[in-house]
Amino acid sequence: AQKVTQAQTEISVVEKEDVTLDCVYETRDTTYYLFWYKQPPSGELVFLIRRNSFDEQNEISGRYSWNFQKSTSSFNFTITASQVVDSAVYFCALSEVYNQGGKLIFGQGTELSVKP
Amino acid sequence: NAGVTQTPKFRVLKTGQSMTLLCAQDMNHEYMYWYRQDPGMGLRLIHYSVGEGTTAKGEVPDGYNVSRLKKQNFLLGLESAAPSQTSVYFCASISYSRYDSYEQYFGPGTRLTVT
Q: Cα separation of B24 and B45, whole Å?
């Protein structure tokens, strides 16, 4: 069965701190995609990153970085030098492209609060 | 190119009433999805469609029906609304191509309250 676990329900940091959001997934497929989405207080879902199961390279985009480790089934997200605008709920999601019609399995979400 | 749009954005229903949520996409995507979001539970798949005229059940399909008569539209119906269906509903679509451009595009959401 597919499952995504975000064990951190809420995280609170002070501006400029680094913060890591954890994501652990379960799948029996060898071909899958992992995603991170941001949901700001306005409610829309903002796509952050997609990683396919064949690409374990870490990725950096500005203050954001992602660490994909198949050996531990984890896809963690780090924000460096956090800012108040990073306050949002962050979702990790899994998609088994070929077997499940591309549907997304979401984690429960981590609410990040960045205080000035 | 409007992407994925949802109608309406907000709605309040009384228990037992019916309504239809409309999702439209102008990207010629094959796959479309309806999710619901409840506090502390992330998003859960209600129904999905892999093409015009086809639909399938997701994780939480009870109390909902869907139709995909046209490729660009995916309708979600509530025949007899219940308070447990109070939620935020998101529609999404993807263009299924190998590896490179696989991404789900989400609509802005519909906030539904059933009293």
A: 17
Is A48 in contact with A76 (CB distance < 8 Å)? no
Mutate to test the interface with B, among A45, A51, A52, A100 (most CBs of B within 10 A): A45
The b-or-e profile of B86-96 (16+ CB within 10 A means b, else e) is: bbbbbbbbbbe
Is residue B103 over pLDDT 80?
no
Pair B35, B4: CB distance under 8 Å: no
Encoded tokens for B30 = 């094959």
Q: Which residue of chain B is at minimal alpha-carbon distance from A109?
A: B42
- Are A44 and B48 inside 8 Å of each other by CB? no
Interface test with B, best of A104, A106, A108, A111 (most B CBs within 10 A): A104
Residue A10: C-alpha distances to residues A13, A47, A68, A111 (Å): 10, 20, 22, 5
Positions in chain A whose pLDDT score sits under 50 = none
Q: Is A104 in Cβ contact with B96 (below 8 Å)?
A: no
State mean pLDDT over B76-98: 90
| Residue B12: pLDDT over 60 | yes
d(CA A5, CA A26): 9
Quick: pLDDT tens for B59-79. 999 999 999 999 999 999 999
| Whole-angstrom distance, CA of residue A44 vs CA of residue A24 | 24
CA distance B68 to B74: 5
For chain A, say whether B109 makes contact (Cβ under 8 Å): yes
